[in-house]
Design brief:
Elements: E1 2-15, E2 18-23, E3 26-32, H1 39-51, E4 55-56, E5 62-64, H2 66-69, E6 72-77, H3 99-114, E7 120-122, E8 130-144
Parallel strand pairs: 3-6, 6-7
Antiparallel strand pairs: 1-2, 1-3, 1-8, 4-5
C-alpha cells in the first residue's frame, strides 16, 4: 500500500456536487493499493499513521500524533498512486490492485483506523471526486509498507 498523508486544518470530498465527507483538523490520506498488498499491510500502515508524531506541540515541534490531538481523518482511495510514468507519455497502472481487491483493502484500512477511536470520513470508491484540502504547514508524507 502507498499512502500520501497531508496534515490539514480541514478537508472535504464531494461527489456529484454533494459533500459526502468532511473533517476538521487532522489528516487527509490518499490510499493506493498495489497488486501484492494484504490485510497485514493495511493493519501495519493504520498503526503507523495513528502514531506518527506530525502535529505540533506547544513549542511548535512535531511531537504529537493524531490520537493526542483528537484529530479526524478523511480517507480517499486513489489508484493513480500506482501510476508508473517511467515509459512513454501515458501512465501504466499495471502495479495497482484490481478494483475488487483494492476496495476491500481500503475498507479494512479504514476499519483499522476506526479501532483507535478516530472519526474517519471517506470518499467514494471509483467515483469522480472533488477533494478540498486545507493543507496545514504544508506538511505531506508518503508512507509505504515495504
Amino acid at each position: 500500500m502507498r499512502l500520501v498523508i497531508q496534515r490539514v486544518k480541514k478537508a472535504s470530498v464531494l461527489v456529484d456536487s454533494k459533500t459526502i465527507g468532511e473533517i476538521g483538523q487532522g489528516l487527509v490520506i490518499l490510499i493506493g493499493v498495489g497488486l501484492n498488498d494484504t490485510l497485514e499491510n493495511a493493519h501495519y500502515l493504520a498503526e503507523k499513521v495513528v502514531n506518527l508524531r506530525i502535529f505540533e506541540d506547544t513549542e511548535g515541534k512535531m511531537n504529537c500524533s493524531i490520537l493526542e490531538i483528537g484529530g479526524e481523518i478523511l480517507a480517499v482511495s486513489q489508484f493513480t498512486l500506482y501510476g508508473d510514468c517511467g515509459k512513454g507519455r501515458r501512465p501504466s497502472f499495471s502495479s495497482a490492485a484490481p478494483p475488487e481487491i483494492a476496495e476491500k483493502l481500503c475498507e479494512k484500512f479504514v476499519e483499522y483506523l476506526q479501532t483507535y477511536g478516530i472519526k474517519v470520513s471517506c470518499g467514494k470508491f471509483q467515483a469522480k471526486m472533488l477533494v478540498e484540502i486545507h493543507n496545514d504547514g504544508p506538511v505531506t508524507f508518503v508512507l509505504e509498507d515495504q
